[in-house]
Amino acid sequence: MVVSTTISEAAPEATRPFSCIIDWSDRIARAEDDLAHAVIVTVIGSNPLVSADEVAVVISSRLDLDAASLVLRRASSSSYLLVFPNTALVESLLGLRQPLRS
Questions:
Q1: What mean pLDDT is predicted for residues 12-16?
Q2: pTM (predicted TM-score)
Q3: What is the CA radius of gyration of the chain?
């Protein structure tokens, strides 16, 4: 990963961006792999946000999965990050091409 920054208080010749290489650890690599299996689930019309368990039940019933196999983490006031065990399940969900309703 390359992070580019500028130094605004320095003299003009020193204001060029410089690069900082951050070590790519196994933890970062695992996180990147996990995100390949993830989708954002937006919940519309529920205030407050329904529980992760309720969302898991709706999604798992459409994909013939065990709801306990789904990992959902709250991403915002109206959405969850859903991490599937593999990319095939992501493709199956996207292949439905319609909102899931409950």
A1: 54
A2: 0.61
A3: 20
